[in-house]
Design goal:
The chain is an alpha+beta fold. The protein folds into two domains: 32 residues; 139 residues, Beta Barrel (OB fold (Dihydrolipoamide Acetyltransferase, E2P)), CATH 2.40.50. Helix content is 40%, strand content 21%. It has five helices and seven strands, in the order H-E-E-E-E-H-E-E-H-E-H-H. The strands form two sheets. Strands 1-2-3-6-5 form a five-stranded mixed beta barrel. Helix 3 packs parallel to helix 4.
């Protein structure tokens, strides 16, 4: 009889412990801070998108990169298409991470775009060879990582760094072709 009671007590103890562990896991999942993901609604070019944020349409300029302008054929269109592919693979959902300055002189939000699987889109555009490094202080939080990504793309002749790549930096192109 004592063995039977002991087995019952052990079974109850194990059951209670399993219940407590599962409740603790559920509590942890519910109290963990949630990242707010927002929907990208338009890709303007290889470094600018529009999102809906707080019920308002906002243009967002990706920090740390400068993609070829659309007039820099074919690379402007290729960069835009690549950004669309990256966003499509994240189901057009991103989180925005701001740096020191939140807006540029044109009123656009300045942000690092993160996918739900924790990939920074700004970094990926450089790594894949569809943008050049473009840092403006004080927004330099990830400058070292971005610089390494560009070096990796250049060393591997990817995208704009490969054969038939970009002839002129986007910044120089804008100087010669100002917007009216």
């Amino acid at each position: 009889m004592n063995k039977r009671i002991l087995r019952i007590l052990i079974g109850l103890t194990v059951s209670i412990m399993l219940l407590l562990v599962s409740l603790y896991g559920k509590y942890q999942a519910e109290t963990k801070p949630k990242t707010n993901y927002i929907r990208v609604i338009e890709v303007h070019d290889g470094d600018t998108v529009s999102v809906i944020l707080d019920d308002k349409r906002e243009k967002v300029r990706l920090i740390g990169i400068d993609a070829p302008e659309l007039g820099q054929r074919p690379w402007g269109q290729k960069a835009k298409r690549h950004l669309k592919e990256l966003l499509s693979s994240s189901k057009w959902e991103v989180s925005l991470e701001f740096d020191i300055e939140k807006r540029d002189i044109h009123g656009r939000l300045l942000a690092y775009l993160w996918t739900p699987d924790k990939k920074m889109i700004n970094l990926q555009m450089l790594k894949d060879g569809y943008a050049v490094l473009f840092t403006i202080s004080p927004n330099i939080r990830y400058v070292d990582e971005l610089r390494r990504a560009q070096s990796e793309a250049r060393d591997n002749d990817l995208g704009i760094w490969g054969r038939g790549g970009l002839n002129e930096a986007p910044r120089e192109y804008r100087k010669e072709h100002p917007r009216l």
